[in-house]
C-alpha cells in the first residue's frame, strides 16, 4: 500500500486519505485484503490530487476523493515527510509535480495502452535523497 524512504519520502500507489491519521493505520491493515469501496485502503489506491481543489472533494472516478495542495502540505507537516511520490495517473511527460513540488506523479508506461502520446519516467533517489528522472519516450512501431 505504501513505503517510506529514509523516513522522508512517502510512496503510495494513488494518494492520500482523510482516514490516514497515523502510519500505524497502514501497518494495521489486515492482509491479504479485497479493496473496499471506501476508507483508507480504497483512498491509498484511488485518490487523486486535483489543482484548484481545497481540502477533499468528490472524485470523477466515482470512488475515493480528490484532494488539494493544502492536504499534501498538512500531511507532510503532520508526518514530517519532505515528498509524496505516487503513480496511478497518466501524465504527459512521464512525471508531474503538484503542490509546489511536494508531490510527484510518476507514470512509467510510455504510449499507455496505445491510446496516449505520453512519455514514461523513472525516478532515481540518491543517498542524500536528491531525486532525478529518466524519461522513456514513446516509440510508435511502423507496420
What does this structure look like?
The chain starts with a strand and ends in a 7-residue tail after the last strand. The protein has a 5-stranded mixed sheet. Strands 3-5-4 form a 3-stranded mixed sheet. It has a two-stranded antiparallel ribbon with strand order 9-10. The protein is built from 3 helices and 10 strands. The chain is globular, with a radius of gyration of 16 Å. Strand 9 and strand 10 (131-136) form a beta hairpin. The mean pLDDT is 96. With 143 residues, it is of the alpha/beta class. The protein has a single domain, classed as Metallo-dependent phosphatases (Purple Acid Phosphatase, chain A, domain 2, 4-Layer Sandwich).
Strand order of the largest sheet: 1-2-6-8-7
Number of extended strands: 10
SSE string, helix = H, strand = E? EEHHEEEHEEEEE
CATH topology: Purple Acid Phosphatase, chain A, domain 2
Look at the structure and give the mean pLDDT: 96
CATH class: Alpha Beta
Secondary-structure-derived class: alpha/beta
Sheet with the most strands?
5 strands, mixed
| Helix content estimate | 10-25%
Low-confidence stretches: none
Shape: globular
* CA gyration radius, whole angstroms: 16 Å
Protein name: Serine/threonine protein phosphatase Sds21
GO molecular function, one term: protein serine/threonine phosphatase activity
Pfam families: Metallophos
InterPro entries: Calcineurin-like_PHP, Metallo-depent_PP-like, PP1_catalytic_subunit, Ser/Thr-sp_prot-phosphatase
